Here is the input.
Amino acid sequence: MSKSPSDWTELVSSIAGIGVLLSDATAPEPSPPERALVAREFPHLSWAFSAAAAQPAALHDAVLIDEADWHSDATDLYDWDARVLSLQSRRGWLLVSSAHGSQPALEALLQILTRYQRLAPRVNDASRDDSFRCAVSLHRALHDLNKPLVRADYEHALDVWQWVLRLEPCAGRALQLAALFHDIERISSEGDQRVEQHAIDYQSFKNAHAWVGAQLAAHTLAAAGMDAADCDHAAELIWQHELPLARKPDSFTDGASGIRPAMLGPELMSPDALAPADIGAHGSKAASDGPALIARELRVLADADALSFFSLNSRGFFDYYGLEHTRKKVRYTLGRMSPVALGYLQHVKLPSEVERVMYEISLDEHMGLQAGAAS
Ligand SMILES: [Fe+2]
Ligand SMILES: [Fe+2]
Here is the structure.
């Protein structure tokens, strides 16, 4: 099952490098401080400036996006998806052109990379080895990419993994595995059609999804030969990934695992459910590392999951579920985000429909605050 390093590129990496091309040929290329924001978020990507201009071969296979077109309301995210995802069949450069200077071009580049970061996966010391590559390969093999909903979940998983590494560059192996496998349960339950909109109790539905997913992930990763402690640790994170999060890590833990039974739906509150045979069976590293680590990792995973909803999935979500359920989902997701994650939304190109929903929600909250202050 082991993969050679060259398979890594074939598996998921499609962006050969990034760059900015200014229409004013005399304009200087962006300086390192100007590039800092993009470089901080995507330190693993090669840059091309004058280099691209000097290398027609790089330009030949590049996707070139005009910064003004990217920001235009007239174009649709799906159109951009079709263009950028063409890199999956011909690994090439992703370049942004601008007539307005390097700063607007770099801001557009950051938004574009944020939407398509799964095409240029970043790894760290915990994921830069054959074993983790096997996990990525196995994860892909579990998904029938011919099914649109399954493909959406697959892409979301890669995207959440990448958000985790942006939020926590030193993320451990288990957290990265949890990001990849956190929604694995949906392959069987919602691969052909979604059902979450019919849930009578949304939080209980989400808890059940997380619970089954944790067990599936634990079995799958163990069968693939992953380290037992990593399997347990990842499963523990998946088990809790939909639970409400306290703002302060201190108040998150009411027990050894950090779970608060009152958060669980009735079907998950039995003692059996809280003490599964196959999670923690190997002496969980998570447990030994303590609840503070788990709380911190759950915070990162929740933020990554929420950011991926906005940056990658929200357009498709709106189209599939419609306005009412999107309102509910946006409210639920915003309520789970830390201030740091909310700050990242400024670098996310949101579909106009979702932007409107967020505006309505912020208006509702503002009015609520005003009414509260007046009473
Ligand atoms: Fe989930
Ligand atoms: Fe998710």
Remarks:
- The pocket of fe (ii) ion (ligand 2) is lined by residues 156, 160, 182-183, 305 (CB under 6 Å).
- Confidence is low (pLDDT under 50) at residues 1-6, 247-285.
